[in-house]
Specification:
single chain, alpha/beta, Rossmann fold, 5-stranded antiparallel β-sheet, 22% helix
């Protein structure tokens, strides 16, 4: 059942508070329905992402290089997006491949690689269903991207798939976001913008609704491309993010066959604690 925003049709989204539907989105009437998340990032969201986060976080990159620089076999980054982390690793001589569900993200990655004279090995598909023909010495999923998989069966199946792709004693590095700091209910609209090289602005607005019983935040977003006061394009986005508690995710890894070697805080070099809003798990195929 669709959700209507003016003349635009969306797949439904949860936007309910105190049992009543929210009645405003950009000044238009919104019909209350069920949330169905997006399948992949599109053109405007890819442009916005690259301008909003142009560089890999230094600490994340340093952490990965520490674990990857001595690896002899092939390395894989699922959900690699436009290459924010994959490309610096390729520049450093790391033998890493990537895949993503978004053709727009993959195209952006190829264009960025071409500027550096790099030919990346990229595949298109979802972690839950893509089929790859080789095994990898290390697989890493940074920046909380694994949280975009929210269905419990898909989470279980994805971890089992990662296990199968690894060589014997291969290593999995996966970063998650925790439930720390998440508050229940519908949030106020928030917005930010970036400027393209041609002077056009991409404005992003979002509104989240966190359900603590699911540990999932359902987010409705809109991208607007504006130049010289004219709206040139817009894109509507629906996504869900799954959050975890440390012991919960550790248990999921163990159930999939992994032995957890380390669990680090996402920033700095300390052990993760239940008070941290994220964690990086380092595991071995056991």
């Amino acid at each position: 059942m669709p959700l209507s925003i003016g003349s635009t049709i969306l797949t439904g989204i949860w936007i309910q508070q105190s049992g009543k539907p929210d009645s405003s989105y950009c000044g238009s009437r919104v019909t209350y329905q069920t949330f169905v998340p997006m399948k992949s990032y599109k053109k405007l969201s890819t442009e916005f992402y690259d301008l909003d986060k142009p560089q890999a976080p230094k600490e994340t990159l340093a952490f990965l290089l520490e674990h990857l620089v001595s690896i002899q076999g092939p390395i894989l980054e699922p959900m690699s997006g436009s290459g924010r982390i994959l490309i610096p690793l390729l520049r450093a001589g790391i033998n890493v491949e990537g895949f993503d569900a978004s053709s727009d993200m993959l195209q952006a990655c190829r264009l960025r690689c071409a500027r550096d004279g790099i030919t990346p090995v990229l595949y298109e598909g979802y972690l839950e269903s893509i089929r790859l023909s080789k095994s990898y010495a290390v697989i890493f999923i940074p920046s909380g991207s694994f949280g975009l998989i929210t269905d419990p069966n898909s989470v279980k199946g994805s971890l089992e798939q990662l296990f199968e792709w690894l060589t014997p004693s291969g290593k999995l590095i996966v970063e998650i976001e925790t439930t720390v700091g998440q508050t229940a209910g519908l949030k106020e609209w928030a917005s930010r913008s970036v400027v393209r090289p041609d002077g056009a602005h991409i404005v992003y607005r979002e509104r989240g609704n966190y359900f603590p019983e699911e540990k999932i935040n359902h987010i409705l977003g809109e991208y607007q491309l504006i130049k010289d006061g004219q709206l040139l394009d817009k894109e509507l986005e629906q996504l869900s993010i799954r959050y975890y508690e440390l012991m919960e995710f550790s248990g999921l890894l163990s159930n999939a066959g992994f032995a957890v070697v380390d669990c680090r805080a996402p920033h700095g070099n300390s052990k993760a604690t239940p008070a941290d809003n994220g964690a990086i798990f380092v595991c071995r195929k056991s």
